[in-house]
Amino acid sequence: MSVLLGASSYVVRVAEDPADREACFAVRKEVFVVEQQVPEDLEYDLYDADAVHVLAMREDGLPLGAGRLLYGDAAVAKTGGESGVGSLGRLAVVRAARGLGVGVALVRGIEDAARARGLTAVDLHAQTHALGFYERLGYVAYGPEYPEAGIAHRAMRIALQDLSGT
User: Fold this and answer.
1) Residue 102: is its pLDDT beyond 90?
2) How far apart are CA 146 and CA 140, in angstroms?
3) pTM of structure
């Protein structure tokens, strides 16, 4: 997916190689570890090895945002949910790209990756300040508020529509 961002464009795609994954991790470090002061040992976990990482990158190679999808046993282990439900997480957009649609494009890219793997829904753990963002995208909050890495969160879910028209 290619999107126009001001005078330049960016692409949202699944991270295909080690350089892409490192770009994803660099965005996460900038947003979560540096800005939000999440301990680095909590930000990176064993799920990163097998997750589908999605990257938003400007045409000049500057990473703008990242997110990941857990599916199968990893999603079940992380969320306690059903095997047909993916887990969207670690969604981060660098400060300079916020408010420009990068987060929306990343969420939709992660949902596309979930559909491609046959998943019927996606769960996430939203920081409470981001509930409105996810609600505008069709996610519904459920369960009580809880702390994760010292930040208030709520669980949310969206049922995925079959975009094939069948």
Assistant:
1) yes
2) 16
3) 0.88
Residue 21 identity? R
Neighbours of 88 (CB within 10 A): 27
Three-class HEC string of the chain = CEEEECCEEEEEEECCCHHHHHHHHHHHHHHHHHHCCCCHHHHCCHHHHCCEEEEEEECCCCEEEEEEEECCHHHHHHHCCCCCEEEEEEEEECHHHCCCCHHHHHHHHHHHHHHHCCCCEEEEEEEHHHHHHHHHCCCEEEEEEEEECCEEEEEEEEECCCCCCC
Q: What is the Cα–Cα distance from 16 to 110, expressed in whole angstroms?
A: 14
**Cβ(91)–Cβ(125) below 8 Å:** no
Give tens-digit pLDDT for 8-48: 689 999 999 999 999 999 999 999 999 999 889 889 899 99
Residue 163 pLDDT more than 60?
no
Residue 34's identity, in one-letter code, is: V
